[in-house]
UniProtKB/TrEMBL annotation:
Domain HTH cro/C1-type: 10-65
Matching Pfam families: HTH_31
Gene Ontology MF terms in the entry: DNA binding; DNA-binding transcription factor activity
UniProt xrefs under PROSITE patterns: HTH_CROC1 (PS50943)
Species: Dehalogenimonas formicexedens
A single GO cellular-component term on record: cytosol
Keyword flag Metal-binding: no
Top-level division of the source organism's lineage: Bacteria
Designated name of the protein: Transcriptional regulator, contains XRE-family HTH domain
Coiled-coil intervals, chain numbering: none
Keywords assigned by UniProt, alphabetized: DNA-binding
Keyword DNA-binding part of the UniProt annotation: yes
Length: 132
């Protein structure tokens, strides 16, 4: 199966969220006409500033969009797997819309337990913190 173009990838994210282009426009402030042109390949990959606006609408991290757009190279990432898990876990704890089961009492959690919590969070919210 051929890899998706960036526009096709954005369309797949939007469809996964069951959003119209107008809904993405409302959330991101990026015009639906421009979104359409990106999705159809009429416009090139957007600048990072635009991707930052689009990420919340598509419920992905800006980093994920940057990687897909070719602005970041995986080799540039220097964080270890444990550091990535810890950062993702801290993101989960700080999300005001997600408080289900995130109250930590007493003992320190293992990295495997933190990974499990992040995976549950990703599943429930549709956000991708560990997977690119």
């Amino acid at each position: 199966m051929a890899e998706l173009t960036f526009g096709q990838y954005l369309r797949s994210l939007r469809e996964r969220q069951r959003m119209s282009m107008r809904e993405v426009e409302k959330v991101s402030g990026v015009s639906n006409a421009y979104i359409s042109q990106i999705e159809t390949g009429e416009k090139p990959t957007p600048r990072p500033e635009i991707l930052k606006k689009l990420a919340p609408a598509y419920k992905v991290t800006a980093r994920e969009l940057f990687m897909r757009a070719g602005y970041l190279d995986e080799r540039e990432v220097t964080a270890s797997e444990d550091e990535r898990i810890e950062a993702a876990f801290q993101y989960v704890l700080s999300d005001p819309d997600y408080k289900l089961g995130t109250r930590i009492r007493g003992e320190t959690l293992s990295i495997e337990a933190k990974r499990g919590i992040v995976i549950v969070y990703e599943t429930l919210t549709g956000k991708k913190l560990l997977t690119i």
